[in-house]
Structure formats: C-alpha cells, structure tokens
C-alpha cells in the first residue's frame, strides 16, 4: 500500500460518518479512527506490522552439481538409482554420479534430508551449481 492509497482512506473517513476503518493488505495493517463524532479534529493513523507465529516447515533446499558434466542416477545401467523421490538420505550417502572428463565423480549428500524431486534426467548434461535434487532437510 502506498501513500496515495493511505491518503484516500483518510479522505473517505473525513467525508463519511464512519468512526473507524481498518484495512489489511499482506502483512500491513492500517487503522484509522475519528476522535470526535461530529467533526474530525484528529485522525489517528496507526500503522503496524502484523506478526504471526507460524510453525516453520522443514527447510527446503537443493543438492547441486559441484562440477560440469553428465548426470547419472545409478552406478551402472543395470543397478537401481542411488535415490528416488521419497527416500531419506543420510549425510555422506551418495545420491548420484557426475561424469567429467571420463572421471566418475560420486556426489554425496552434505546433510540428512528427504528427496522431494529429481530435477534432471539420467545422462543429462549439468552445469556447475545446477540443482540436481530438491530436498527437505531433516
């Protein structure tokens, strides 16, 4: 809400018989009150930030590629993927392989988490810092 909108609210209360008006937009709350019913002597402007206590969900994060290369979800075509959506992963556990210059680099998780989404497909080229997995830290 900008200054023009607040000024319009003041005009509305000045021209009407309203005693009080409260407007909430996002985390902004504006409360305008008439001090005297017959004529406006003072319009009190009370702007306050609303604060809500919200239980924070588990932190969402990403596992990113530490190098440029080719993403592999498993050690070989015959073996199952290191991780799948819904899997719980422990710190230090391998999650994929990124091949760079014919070297297979096993990528390990840096924290305990749950895999929410695999963001790249098998044998896809990946860039440095590219998110590979969306995870929820545990």
UniProtKB/TrEMBL annotation:
UniProt keyword Hydrolase, yes or no: no
CDD domains: biotinyl_domain
Recorded superkingdom: Bacteria
Pathway(s) per entry: Lipid metabolism; fatty acid biosynthesis
Keywords: Biotin, Fatty acid biosynthesis, Fatty acid metabolism, Ligase, Lipid biosynthesis, Lipid metabolism
Lyase is among the record's keywords: no
Gene3D superfamilies (alphabetical): 2.40.50.100
SUPFAM superfamilies assigned to the protein according to its UniProt record, in alphabetical order: Single hybrid motif
Residue ranges annotated for the Lipoyl-binding domain, each copy included: 60-136
Signal peptide: none
GO molecular function: acetyl-CoA carboxylase activity
Entry-linked PANTHER family: OXALOACETATE DECARBOXYLASE ALPHA CHAIN (PTHR45266:SF3)
Biological function: This protein is a component of the acetyl coenzyme A carboxylase complex; first, biotin carboxylase catalyzes the carboxylation of the carrier protein and then the transcarboxylase transfers the carboxyl group to form malonyl-CoA.
Name of this chain's protein: Biotin carboxyl carrier protein of acetyl-CoA carboxylase
Species in which this protein is naturally found: Leptotrichia hongkongensis
